[in-house]
């Protein structure tokens, strides 16, 4: 998908401005791409209509080329279509009940444990239960996960009625003062009337606060039908998208959200318990587009710093001639720009959590001032070539900045890490450039 969107945008970029004919061509490409990514056709049509209106009405912002502007319009529409802000859980009542439904293999049992650990961390007293009466191994799987995260698991291994298990678990949760009860259910490999009916009966009987539909982000074209079947037969209050660590682009998010109209509340991002987070529409939108929000970065930068500085810094990052002097300049800009995580998420190529974390470590907001002081205490030569900073120079710099040699060392190490991260970005940019684009 990313490639298609990119190539569509590149075509427009070459023209220099968005004329109607080029725009229509680009939109056609984007439409095909979204359809290919399993987005429901009606959602795609509405989406394209909105983008068209906005693109035609948009004034060309100085310093941003029309292609970048179209990216921003497409991006904003995607974020909106994916649901704006990350949705919260309804945890009213004692216990609040959360029912997980979905096909076998979608990740329900894993998600039950992830959600349990997530809520436990927020200080909630959580009880897990498995209403999967078809596979003894499923109960055992949940039990193991529960033990691992230190959350009790209520099981009735001999019981063959899933509704009864859910009822008994609710009784126990009530009488023992649990805050949250999470009910894992059975799944089949395909939509199955008996299974849907069982889930519906559980829902009717325990009246959960949340019925969360769990779906694998690699499901593909079928996702629309599966989501619709569960929504019609059982009903749901929200969606959890699993396996976002796969190379699936996230088209499933758009299509499931679109066909059910229900908010996507969480995303599973790996097999481990902690690979779980509130769903961020903005991140998935970036991912569907396959690039960070370069336009926002440029625009925001324009607001607080002059365009020339921003561009020259960008060029330096891209060319690899990045020195401590530029690093200091960048730190100053970042301080002016606002919340760090927001800025980082806008830099193209930083889509991956790993790299974000890496950079966040490098640039800890609280440390920024001390780092600036250290760099201030260097000679211009040292700033341009950090390799010459030996032990005696480090001592002098530490004295001059009122810090320690250890802190100077750490800064140099972090700077090296930042350069590495930029190198990775550059590689990505080169790869894209080879395909003929600007991004
Ligand atoms: P269930 O049949 O719906 O209960 O699915 P399971 O919870 O048993 O998960 C099926 C498989 O998917 C297991 O191997 C899980 O480890 C894996 N899985 C679940 N969530 C994720 C995720 O977010 N990322 C990855 N990579 N694997 C996941
Ligand atoms: Mg299971």
UniProtKB/TrEMBL annotation:
UniProt-annotated binding residues for GTP: 102-109, 184-188, 242-245
Positions of transmembrane segments: none
Gene Ontology terms for molecular function: 7S RNA binding; GTP binding; GTPase activity
Catalytic activity of the protein: GTP + H2O = GDP + phosphate + H(+)
Superkingdom of origin organism: Bacteria
Record-level GO BP terms: SRP-dependent cotranslational protein targeting to membrane
Keyword set, alphabetical order: Cytoplasm, GTP-binding, Hydrolase, Nucleotide-binding, Ribonucleoprotein, RNA-binding, Signal recognition particle
PROSITE patterns: SRP54
GO CC term, one of those recorded: signal recognition particle
SUPFAM superfamilies xref list: P-loop containing nucleoside triphosphate hydrolases (SSF52540), Signal peptide-binding domain (SSF47446)
NCBIfam families: ffh
Domains (record comment): Composed of three domains: the N-terminal N domain, which is responsible for interactions with the ribosome, the central G domain, which binds GTP, and the C-terminal M domain, which binds the RNA and the signal sequence of the RNC.
Family: Belongs to the GTP-binding SRP family. SRP54 subfamily.
Role, per record: Involved in targeting and insertion of nascent membrane proteins into the cytoplasmic membrane. Binds to the hydrophobic signal sequence of the ribosome-nascent chain (RNC) as it emerges from the ribosomes. The SRP-RNC complex is then targeted to the cytoplasmic membrane where it interacts with the SRP receptor FtsY.
HAMAP family: SRP54
Name the record gives this protein: Signal recognition particle protein
Organism: Phorcysia thermohydrogeniphila
Upper lineage: Bacteria, Pseudomonadati, Aquificota, Aquificia, Desulfurobacteriales
Gene: ffh
